[in-house]
Amino acid sequence: MISYGSKSAHHAMIFLHGNSQNATNARYLLKKTISDQTLEEYSLIIFFPNHAWYKYRNTKSHDYIQSSLHVCRHKLHTLMTNLSKQYKICIGGYSQGATVAIDAAMTFKQTVPVVSISGFMLNKESVKPGEIYGSRQDLQLKYIHGENDTVITYDQAIKSFQHHRTSGIVLKGYDHWGFWKDTHFKRFFFQFLEESCIVDGVRI
To answer: What are phi and psi of 199, to 5 degrees?
Structure first.
């Protein structure tokens, strides 16, 4: 696992790469969005696990092997538990990494802020075999999605979120990628960090 930021920070974000990425590539892209100075301002370090995520039976329909997702979930829950002993944590991801981040947050015993970038929720209404997620009124999912996404369509993402507390933005003119320097993307991402770095109304 690689990182970006100081390990003496108060907060940690776990960021999960996409299906065709690795941790190094994900860090390279996210550096276009968030600077060293901003990390210092938020007292934040970002960790990039370098795992392969769940396996697909059919990538076009997003049909996946459920047992492989549950292995990812267990690994992430262990990481989240360990990091939460030192940091106030949040989690996010891009594409397939976003679906894994959502799954980990929805099934974790504690409330962990989560942001999905070009992702969706792996529930039974959206994909096979599909997960059954309980109502998490303590958890609000943040999402960022391109309006012209052809890999995971905006409609597919919104349908998967419909029974859960969400807020997000649609990036006009964007497909599945390419928005890391976009002003609207950066503003919403920083808003997510602002909310994740607040404890009892005070940034720590």
So the answer is: -125, 115
**Is residue 49 over pLDDT 80?**
yes
Rounded to whole angstroms, the Cα distance separating 95 from 153 reads 11
Cβ-contact 202, 10 below 8 angstroms: no
Non-local (6+) Cβ contacts of 142 within 8 A are 113, 114, 115, 116, 166, 167, 168, 188, 192
Check residue 135 and report its DSSP letter.
P
Bridge partner residues of 2 (DSSP): 48
Using pLDDT thresholds of 50, 70 and 90, give the confidence band for residue 53: very high
Helix (H) or strand (E) holding 81: helix 66-83
> Residue 155 belongs to what domain range?
2-203
Q: What is the pLDDT of residue 98?
A: 97
Ramachandran class of 43: left when φ > 0, alpha when ψ lies in -120 to 50, beta otherwise: left
Average pLDDT over residues 29-47: 94
Task: Count structural domains, the chain.
Answer: 1
User: Cα angle at 108 between 107 and 109, to 5 degrees?
Assistant: 120
- CA atoms of 62 and 149, how far apart (whole Å): 15
Q: In this structure, are residues 39 and 30 in contact, taking their beta carbons and an 8 Å threshold?
A: no
Q: Which has the closest alpha carbon to 107: 93, 87, 123?
A: 123
Supply the CATH number for residue 98's domain: 3.40.50.1820
C-beta separation of 26 from 97 below 8 A: yes
Q: Residue 47 pLDDT > 60, yes or no? A: yes
